[in-house]
Specification:
The chain is about 65% helix and about 0% strand. By secondary structure, it is mainly alpha-helical.
C-alpha cells in the first residue's frame, strides 16, 4: 500500500535550494518529506493534547508553537 504524501517533491526542492543546495536528488526530496511529515505529525498530536487539556476542540497557533518547544 502506498503511503499518502502531504508535502510535494517540488516544495522539498525549493526548501533545500533556499538552504543553498545547488542540486537535489529525488531520493533526498523523498527523505526530507518523510522526516518533515513525521515531525509534523508528532507536533500535531501534542498540540491536540494541549487543546483538549485546555477544554477546547480547536487546535490553535499557540498549541502548535508550544508543542514544538
Amino acid at each position: 500500500m502506498v503511503k499518502k504524501r502531504f508535502l510535494s517533491h517540488n516544495a522539498m526542492d525549493k526548501i533545500m535550494r533556499e538552504a543553498g543546495a545547488l542540486r537535489v536528488s529525488d531520493d533526498a526530496k523523498v527523505a526530507l518529506a518523510e522526516v518533515l511529515e513525521e515531525k509534523a505529525l508528532q507536533i500535531s498530536e501534542e498540540a491536540k493534547k494541549l487543546a483538549e487539556h485546555a477544554g477546547r476542540k480547536t487546535v490553535t497557533e499557540k498549541d502548535i508553537r508550544l508543542a514544538n518547544k
